Amino acid sequence: MLVIVVYDVPAERTRVYRKLLRQKLEHIQNSVFYGNLTEGQVTKLKNQIDDQLVPEDSVMVFEAETQDYVDYTVFGSAERPGSRFT
Amino acid sequence: MTKPNHHIFADGDLKRNEGTLRIDTLDGETEYLPVESVDTLYLHGQITFNTRALGLLNEHGIPVHVFGWKDHYRGSYLPKRDHISGDTVVQQVRAYDDPARRLSIAEDFVAASIHNMRANVRYYDDKRGDFTGALNRLEGLKQRVCDDDRDSIDELRGIEATARKAYYRCFDTILRDPFELTQREYNPPTSEANALISFLNGMVYTSCVSAIRQTALDPTVGFLHEPGERRFTLSLDIADIFKPLLADRVAFRVVNRQHISIDDFESELEGCLLSEDGRLAVLEEFEKMLDETIEHPRLNRKVSYKTLVRTDVYSLKKHLIANEPYRATERWW
Lengths: 86, 333
Known about the structure:
The structure holds 2 protein chains of 2 kinds. Chain A is built from 2 helices and 4 strands.
């Protein structure tokens, strides 16, 4: 399923989530991650986020069953997310 | 859903960083790859990497296929096996060593391969020309594979070669001009169409290497191809089934829809090869093809072409160890 994760956490804690999320998702903008995961991967990801959480952190996970349900427009210079080529 | 592949065309360093893969390109850009969401890594550029990066790829079971100059396949780094099963390998070799069983498996490969060639020709019959002759020819050859008794694998290879020749003769008509295919030639490919088909066949081959890696089967022991002949013979066997489904269909698509043109090729040293832009355009279409899904009658769900390669290999494995019928993938959709 399509997953978008955003977070808003104190500066010194960003690396905690950045490290966790970069292993599974594409880092498309500061504190915004995008990717396609299986249901199992999503469950594991949520548990891992929950394990890291302290009271001042805020993390949101958006999911859609398939990528087909979500359309997006990219403004500016960034590449479209989901590219398989570097 | 299977994970997507990732292709690196840039030149640069591939490193392990914060538990994931990081690419620093020579252009000064940095990109991170989600290591848990990559199926297979293809290195097309000049890339430096060390054992720490390989260790990480190993941990996540990601095979790496390396391409060298002008995207010639150079080899693969395969992670340490998750599935070690001496029993499976023993059964595989036993089947190879038993002439009747080997022949029967090889016949399944060839029958499926001819079936899939014919499906392609049938699709383009009337659309791009009249292929009645080739269709009948391929039908007859498939019947011969299924019906006749034979005691040599060479005869089977002969039928396969005849079928492939009849099949490739249709290409010139199917491919939109100015692409021409008068004769299938490789090492090096001599024309644009030959270069395109060789490149895509290489991609199908690596897809099969990745799929076989997920089972305990030994990729070097094939049934139709003679083991030790060259490369991973089991991958060559499986690739023959999927070349018409994946490589040839993508070749027809990119040419006929004009995603690539004659300008996307470079002639050098008596050979002809795809340029980097051309390879990118072809690979994009190939990746789309792997993602395409079809309804699977036995699994009762939609599967992608990529999964289809895996189910084929699993079916072979089950045949070898549990003697269930091997169902080589024949286009049913």
